[in-house]
From TrEMBL:
SMART domains in alphabetical order: P4Hc
Fe2OG dioxygenase domain segment(s): 215-309
Keywords: Dioxygenase, Iron, Metal-binding, Oxidoreductase, Vitamin C
Name of this chain's protein: 2-oxoglutarate and iron-dependent oxygenase domain-containing protein 2
A Pfam family of this chain: OGFOD2-like
UniProt KW Lyase keyword: no
Cofactor: L-ascorbate
Amino acid sequence: MAAAGAPRRFCRCACFCSENLYVARYGLHVRFRGEQQLLRDYGPILRSRGCVSPKDFQQLLAELEQEVERRRRLGQESAARKALIASSYRPARPDVYTLLQDAALAPEFLAAAEYSTSPGAHLEGLLRQVETLSEKKRIYRVPVFTAAFCQALLAELEHFEQSDLPKGRPNTMNNHGVLLHELGLDELLVTPLRERFLQPLMALLYPEYSVGPLDSHRAFVVKYAPGQDRELGCHYDNAELTLNVALGKTFTGGALYFGGLFQVPGALTDTLEVEHVVGQGILHRGGQLHGARPLGTGERWNLVVWLRGSAVRNRLCPMCCREPDLVDDDGFGDGFTREEPATVDVCVLT
């Protein structure tokens, strides 16, 4: 156990550099430990998706080796970008860089969070405060931010995007967007959002993940636009729970679709499509298979917060589905800790 008062040290699982490498051209996530393993495990499906010539395969190998190296350097390069941004960037909207205030949040979200912390709060009462998109899949929607805050945050993100400062990829599938911790918005915006509001609300909606606190997160904004990312392949998140908030702008298409949990056979046979509503957040389990339909017109920006609970993931890494092989990391890492977790029984619900 960590000494009392000592800052918590978060870790990642060593599988980050070998598991769930996304190959967009073939619409496939792969495990990669070398050429022979790749051929043995994925040869038939790769050929069925167009990887047929030696040149195709060598190009794929080069891309995977490049991605592995990118992941190995990720923490160091992200820290360097954050330091450079902190020393060189001049915000367009300094008001965004203040501790999250209730005035930025939608009244419906404040009411739902307040109810969740009230004595005697229960799931049935909370469900009267949020919209149930799928009772079976346990997917919900609730207004999160005011229109004014969405506009202010989006103006700041666009200003940063137009700067010549370096920008990291939001995640391993999206190429365009912003990592909020690099921009200095983690402590001011996302941590209070998680600790004050999402923690109690999620504990009622998803009690199987409330054996310990949601004690870390990864937050990023993704951008979809013509000539950039237009859609997102089917995947599940490296998170226990996820919040996805549409920030704007004006767009058509790009609906989210949801299947079942990734552990369940035939998880994509019964899908649910959900249109984005600016300012509103979709809440779902990280293990829920999902993706985004192609953008039609305009630009779509979404804030995504992966909520993580070390008491859950310390027992089983959601990416490799094994006991995590811990590697020290910067910041929140991937939400693992070396502390002895509470006893956890994670239910797989459909």
